[in-house]
Amino acid sequence: MTPVPVEQVRKVAVVGAGTIGASWAACFLANGLEVIAVDPVVDEGKLRRAIDGMMPALESIGFPVLADTSRLQFSATIGGELAAAQFVQESVPERLELKRETLRELESVIDPQVIVSSSATALIPTDIQEEAKHPQRVIVGHPFNPPHLIPLVEVSGGERTAPEALAWAAEFYRAIGKAPVLMKREAYGHIANRLAAALFREAVHLVAEGIAAVGDIDEVITQGPGLRWALQGPFTTYHLAGGAEGIAHYMRHLGPTQEARWRTLGEPELTDELVDRIVRDVHESVAGLSSAQLARFRDTGLVEIHRLKEGLTADSS
């Protein structure tokens, strides 16, 4: 494959302009790119207002270009205007047949050298690219919500993805301020959502067994390990727990205690009764705050975490 050099990318397409797609569009616009957004359901005015609402946070984390929505073109369908796109971020709903159909439509108008990156939450690129005319350019570029504020993008390829497509995508995401992680091989749910699923499964188990309440579990994470996780991942955390000898000491001396805990972890079933209890308890826990209010609180905090991390180095005292 010979996609256009990353530094020459000027126009990108966002196909699927819901919550994730709108966030991607804001990120691209803040990087000075022209954006063609496509969605058969989302109202154009709603999309533009959503992007406008993201701009103060993007400015706060250092993006020098305020998103000029005059550089945003909108269409309800995939058409000839996408022929000018030099990169496509697909963010349609998580249904395999819909993603394949979207790819078929895209391939009728975009150049064969244009990378198509799916924001798929869990689907793997091998399945998405199965019916593609040019499967070598199909990858997954999975963001973490909200994409305009969280740097992570998990990049993975399928059985027929060209290595140069993965390398190009990683370079492109890095150029727009993201933190791409190139997976060694594809996996259902990628990395972050597999880790999140493991944690959420145990959280649900603790509720189901009456060990802890929903609000208390959220408090345990946000007032405990969540604070560390914004700075260091699980392996570095346990490396520090090993003292002067680090992870080697931890694994030798405390590894068996981990295995003992693993054997007690639950496998809850999402029965109607349990789901109803969780829904009721979550609403009680958030104390009447709307989703919009919770999102504003989250986004304000993410901006401050960005600022904090930018000022830290490994040898900070």
UniProtKB/TrEMBL annotation:
One of the entry's Gene Ontology molecular-function terms is: NAD+ binding
Q: Which Gene3D superfamilies match?
A: N-(1-d-carboxylethyl)-l-norvaline Dehydrogenase, domain 2, NAD(P)-binding Rossmann-like Domain
Keyword terms: Oxidoreductase
Q: What domain of life?
A: Bacteria
The 3-hydroxyacyl-CoA dehydrogenase NAD binding domain covers 11-184
Q: GO:BP terms for this protein?
A: fatty acid metabolic process
Extract the Pfam families matched here.
3HCDH, 3HCDH_N
Q: Which InterPro entries match?
A: 3-OHacyl-CoA_DH (IPR022694), 3-OHacyl-CoA_DH_NAD-bd (IPR006176), 3HC_DH_C (IPR006108), 6-PGluconate_DH-like_C_sf (IPR008927), 6PGD_dom2 (IPR013328), NAD(P)-bd_dom_sf (IPR036291)
| Residue span, 3-hydroxyacyl-CoA dehydrogenase C-terminal domain | 189-258
Q: Give the family from UniProt.
A: Belongs to the 3-hydroxyacyl-CoA dehydrogenase family.
| Official protein name in the record | 3-hydroxybutyryl-CoA dehydrogenase
The beginning of the lineage is: Bacteria, Bacillati, Chloroflexota, Caldilineae, Caldilineales
